[in-house]
Recover the amino acids of this structure.
């Protein structure tokens, strides 16, 4: 290994050179991660609200289960999705294995528990404040959940960010279901794994630096939006 | 800004924007889009992919046929299992016995020799086991076992790992009892195993192509090579469309025919790295 | 045992609590409370801290279920009852969105909401701050929004839990004007207050609670002239009630 200087030089060359392959890989990373985060939010926010506000048997057990799912190793999720999407698996006829769609499915499964668990906490905290007001207004459970989710929207962005961070950084699941196929399913993390296995450590680290910069930019964007929005809403 | 907020639309718009960005990003071929001739999936090994061979020869094939090749590079063991699950159209690996079993079990149509290279034993330049003084790979491995010098094994049921175990058997050494002491199973691909060997100055067995292309050699160098037991044969198999109805049999056969043709064989022979030829085509003319 | 009775059998009262008891933290916070709220006018519930005033209000609003006793009223729709708290909890939205949310919760048909929203903004003199984030408003403005939000339900029973306790005189006057307006339009108003002046200004009837029981029920003018119960006398004399 030639040290960090080479890594930064490699990262700099990649970014400044506007390397076409890099642009493609970054684009696919963004597409997969943002799509998975979006679907995870669409599933996780309502699930979190139900766990926070709902009164039904097994709610405690379900909450523990969702919290436990946060610790799922990406490789295990990848394997499960692989077995589902494999030609011999139950959804094999869809022909989704080794496509970005398969990667989005795997990451959605990976991220949804995180988003749901954090959303549950956010909604529960807000419910403590709103409980009497909403009940005295005669709001039903569905309306209460919608109200709490909307009013917790800025805090929920943090949940979305946490989910996005995991999706952006994980390699195990997308490697298995995507196959790391050049120009088709290669994303930042699988490219880093590939360059590492080629012994191109400086290039791998350079890609890592690009990934970190990307993550930083996305976080700054969302937090900026959250802060300015929250300031306006005095949330 | 106030009116922007007042419509209650601010965060909703952000979410919408996120969604649009996600969906508007170039939609890479999920299905048969892309090259005109569609695509096939080749289950193959990390050694061929990491060597850069595919980057060099596949564009020539796609240019003439319009068929796009999607290479999934994993260990030979995993490639065989994926192929048994029908998750591919062509299998290109290097474990002849396992390949023949694959065909006998009805998963492959037929197996054909495609090319070969060889394995080399690499290790630290100070060579604590004095491997460089030996004249055969059997003697080299015995010397390592006797000196209990660290040896990094793939340990992942890959083609290289299968080869390594057969070499230990030839040397009449069973290193599995010493796993965790001097014999270290990485459970990883060739590149990761080379990184580990480089990191702890261990001996390891690698195919020559991966070795030449590997950039993080550190203090490692080739200490034993040339023994005919180190011969590394690659075979190619079309996956059986009877067993796997989703297989794209026609383009798969087109690809195999091309690789076995003079054009494909000379493309393999022409691929060089650092001036060295990495793979030697040896398809038998029909 | 608790009986929840819905009937219009009591023509002169909107809601009646009968022998309501409730234990909280090992103590009887409501101890056989009998309370009847006259249909017309404003009833002020007074009494020292810990007398059970706020809890009695929550029992009326069905927010708290008593251990025993009966709540008797003729109000079938949950929206017939509205509650305003000492500290308003407004949603993290604009004033307009807060009211629109309330109208939606109250089941006002979509096509009527715009008109109703305009009426409510006018009624609460909120038009100028309609597009401000509700939580950025002053305490008085926030309580005005909360009052208007409660009235958006067109409740038959309006329950107010010390709505001006933390407001300055000007904001208090604005809230009191809204309370009078609500009573004027026919709602039964129940007001928990510590402010004798406010009770004098607004109340038609007084219910004085002490230790979870009713100590005195009287018309307001009569009560303030000469409270009959020793508890009320002591309270207004500034004595500590034990």
């Amino acid at each position: 290994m030639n040290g960090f200087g080479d890594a930064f030089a490699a990262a700099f060359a990649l970014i400044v050179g506007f390397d076409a392959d890099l642009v493609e890989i970054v684009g696919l990373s963004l597409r997969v991660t943002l799509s998975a985060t979006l679907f995870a939010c669409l599933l996780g926010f309502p699930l979190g609200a139900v766990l926070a506000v709902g009164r039904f048997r097994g709610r405690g057990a379900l909450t523990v289960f969702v919290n436990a799912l946060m610790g799922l190793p990406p490789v295990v999720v990848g394997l499960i999705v692989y077995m589902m999407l494999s030609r011999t698996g139950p959804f094999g006829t869809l022909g989704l294995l080794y496509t970005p769609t398969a990667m989005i499915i795997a990451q959605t499964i990976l991220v949804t528990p995180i988003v749901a668990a954090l959303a549950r906490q956010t909604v529960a905290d807000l419910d403590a404040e709103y409980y009497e007001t909403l009940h005295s207004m005669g709001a039903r459970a569905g309306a209460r959940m919608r109200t709490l989710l909307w009013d917790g929207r800025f805090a929920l962005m943090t949940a979305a960010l946490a989910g996005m961070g995991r999706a952006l950084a994980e390699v195990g699941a997308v490697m298995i279901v995507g196959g790391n196929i050049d120009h088709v399913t290669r994303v930042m993390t699988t490219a880093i794994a590939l360059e590492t296995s080629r012994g191109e450590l400086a290039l791998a680290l350079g890609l890592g630096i690009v990934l970190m910069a990307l993550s930083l930019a996305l976080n700054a964007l969302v937090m900026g939006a959250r802060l300015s929005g929250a300031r306006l809403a005095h949330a | 800004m106030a009116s922007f907020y007042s419509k209650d639309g601010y965060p909703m718009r952000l979410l919408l924007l996120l969604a649009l960005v996600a969906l508007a990003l170039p939609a890479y071929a999920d299905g048969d889009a892309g090259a005109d001739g569609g695509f096939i999936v080749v289950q193959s090994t990390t050694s061929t992919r990491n060597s850069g061979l595919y980057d060099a020869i596949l564009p020539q094939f796609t240019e003439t046929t319009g068929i796009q090749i999607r290479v999934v590079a994993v260990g030979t063991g995993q490639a065989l299992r994926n192929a048994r699950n029908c998750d591919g159209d062509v299998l290109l690996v290097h474990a002849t016995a396992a390949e023949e079993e694959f065909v006998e079990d009805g998963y492959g149509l037929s197996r054909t020799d495609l090319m070969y290279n060889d394995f080399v034993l690499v290790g630290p330049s100070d060579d604590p086991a004095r491997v460089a003084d030996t004249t055969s790979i059997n003697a080299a491995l015995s010397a390592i076992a006797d000196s209990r010098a660290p040896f990094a094994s793939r340990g992942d049921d890959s083609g290289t790992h299968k080869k390594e175990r057969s070499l230990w058997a030839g040397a009449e050494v069973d290193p599995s009892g010493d796993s965790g002491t001097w014999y270290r199973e990485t459970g990883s691909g060739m590149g990761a195993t080379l990184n580990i060997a480089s990191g702890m100055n261990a001996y390891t067995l690698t195919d020559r192509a991966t070795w030449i292309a590997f950039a993080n050699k550190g203090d490692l160098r080739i200490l034993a090579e040339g023994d005919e037991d180190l011969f590394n044969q690659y075979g190619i198999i079309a996956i059986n469309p009877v067993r796997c109805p989703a297989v794209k049999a026609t383009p798969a056969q087109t690809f195999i025919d091309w690789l076995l043709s003079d054009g494909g064989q000379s493309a393999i022979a022409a691929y060089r790295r650092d001036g060295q030829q990495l793979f030697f085509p040896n398809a038998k003319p029909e | 045992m608790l009986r929840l009775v819905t009937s219009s059998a009591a023509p002169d009262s909107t809601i009646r609590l009968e022998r309501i008891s409730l234990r909280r933290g090992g103590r009887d916070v409501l101890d056989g409370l009998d309370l009847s709220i006259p249909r017309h006018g404003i009833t002020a519930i007074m009494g020292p801290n810990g007398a059970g005033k706020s809890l009695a209000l929550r029992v009326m609003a069905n927010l708290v279920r008593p251990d025993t006793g009966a709540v008797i009223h003729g109000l079938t729709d949950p929206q017939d009852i509205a509650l305003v708290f000492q500290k308003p909890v407004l949603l993290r939205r604009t004033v307009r969105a807060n009211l629109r949310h309330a109208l939606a919760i109250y089941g006002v048909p979509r096509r009527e909401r715009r008109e109703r929203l305009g009426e409510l903004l006018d009624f609460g003199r909120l038009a100028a701050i309609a597009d401000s984030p509700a939580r950025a408003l002053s305490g008085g403005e926030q309580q005005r929004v909360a009052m208007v939000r409660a009235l958006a339900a067109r409740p038959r029973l309006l329950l107010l839990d010390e709505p001006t306790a933390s407001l300055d005189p000007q904001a208090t006057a604005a809230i009191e004007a809204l309370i009078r307006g609500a009573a004027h339009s026919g709602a039964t108003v129940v007001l928990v207050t510590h402010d004798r002046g406010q009770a004098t200004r607004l109340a038609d009837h007084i219910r004085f609670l002490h230790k979870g029981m009713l100590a005195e029920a009287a018309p307001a003018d009569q009560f303030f002239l000469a409270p009959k119960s020793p508890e009320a006398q002591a309270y207004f004399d500034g004595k500590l009630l034990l």
In short: The interface with chain C takes residues 129-130, 132-139, 143, 147, 150-151, 154, 232-235 of chain A (CB under 8 Å). The mean pLDDT of chain A is 91. Residues 180 and 186 of chain A are 5 Å apart (CA to CA). The two ends of chain A are 49 Å apart (CA to CA).
